[in-house]
Write a structure and sequence with these properties.
Strand content of chain B: under 5%
Radius of gyration of chain A: 20 Å
Largest interface: A-B, 29 and 43 residues
Radius of gyration of chain B: 19 Å
Strand content of chain A: under 5%
Largest sheet of chain B: none
Number of domains of chain A: 1
CATH superfamily of chain B: RNA polymerase sigma factor, region 2, helix turn helix motif
CATH topology of chain B: Rna Polymerase Sigma Factor, Chain: A
Shape of chain B: globular
Helix content of chain A: 55-70%
CATH class of chain B: Mainly Alpha
Number of helices of chain A: 6
Oligomer: heterodimer
Shape of chain A: rod-shaped
Structural class of chain A: mainly alpha
Distance between the termini of chain B: 27 Å
Structural class of chain B: mainly alpha
Chain lengths: 84, 190
């Protein structure tokens, strides 16, 4: 570990700038997104029409159903429903 | 910013479904993941964002498989490295058909510096809120004396001397700690 003079400390503090706030917020909302994903997947398994709508236009279908079409919800649903 | 609750404690709380703990854990490692992706692997912002989300998604899914809560930092580092390499390789495949051109080597010096920086940020948790804010705003957020003064309701003319005093306190805090070996390059049992 290097000696901690003022310049070294300044450089090391500066080496970890904040991540963009929107990225952090999206990651923090993962637990909530998981609950929504489970609900959507369960409905898609039971409702073929809904499943087809998701695959045809994921974002519009989610918005129409009252979900916020944002990450990480979109990422996970695209993984679950290839082609969406 | 700097951590105030040990990460291992947060991991234990996350296992019990504590959403506030998950939020704090993300906050605690967000800079680390971002730095590895953007500085260590020099990913473009759009790729770094994908990696960032993927790392936390995988961490959330697999937290129960982490054998030791204390291993959270090297585990996160390992998840990030893998995600960056996958991202670089998939991007390269779209641009070239020559497998030998697939380069996904990180800047190991930059990653070592990021690990050391995380230790420094951890040590900042031992400082007063005021010192922590001033140092972070000036060095990590590139804020001016004026902006810092307005945000913290301090005379701008005193910020430089406060920074100097806080750096001394931070150095004392670090020198009072045992050196922590950097581990991001190592393999982690999960």
């Amino acid at each position: 570990m290097s000696a901690y003079n003022e310049d070294t400390l300044a450089e090391l503090i500066g080496a970890l700038p904040p991540a963009p706030q929107a990225w952090v917020r999206a990651a923090q909302e993962l637990p909530l997104a998981r609950t929504e994903i489970d609900q959507i997947v369960a409905r898609a398994e039971a409702d073929a029409e809904f499943r087809e709508a998701l695959i045809a236009d994921l974002e519009a279908t989610l918005a129409q159903e009252g979900y916020e079409p944002e990450r990480p919800l979109l990422d996970e649903l695209r993984r679950r429903f290839p082609g969406s | 910013m700097a951590q105030t609750v040990p990460a291992a404690q947060l991991v234990a709380r996350c296992r019990n479904g504590d959403q506030a703990a998950w939020s704090a854990l993300v906050e605690q490692f967000s800079r680390y993941v971002y730095a590895i992706a953007s500085q260590g692997f020099r990913l473009r912002d759009e790729d770094a964002e994908d990696v960032f989300q993927e790392v936390f998604a995988r961490a959330y899914e697999r937290l129960d498989s982490l054998r030791s809560d204390e291993a959270i930092q090297p585990w996160i580092a390992q998840l990030t490295r893998r995600a960056c390499i996958d991202r670089l390789r998939s991007g390269s495949r779209e641009e070239t058909t020559d497998e030998s051109e697939l380069a996904a080597d990180p800047d190991e010096d930059a990653i070592a510096r990021i690990d050391e920086a995380l230790d420094v940020h951890d040590a900042m948790a031992g400082l007063s809120d005021n010192c922590r804010e001033i140092l972070d705003r000036f060095f990590a957020r590139d804020e001016t004396y004026r902006t810092i003064g307005e945000a913290l309701e301090l005379p701008a003319g005193t910020i430089a001397s406060r920074i100097s005093r806080c750096l001394v306190k931070l150095r004392d805090e670090l020198e009072g700690r045992k050196p922590v070996p950097t581990q991001s390059g190592g393999q982690v049992s999960v």
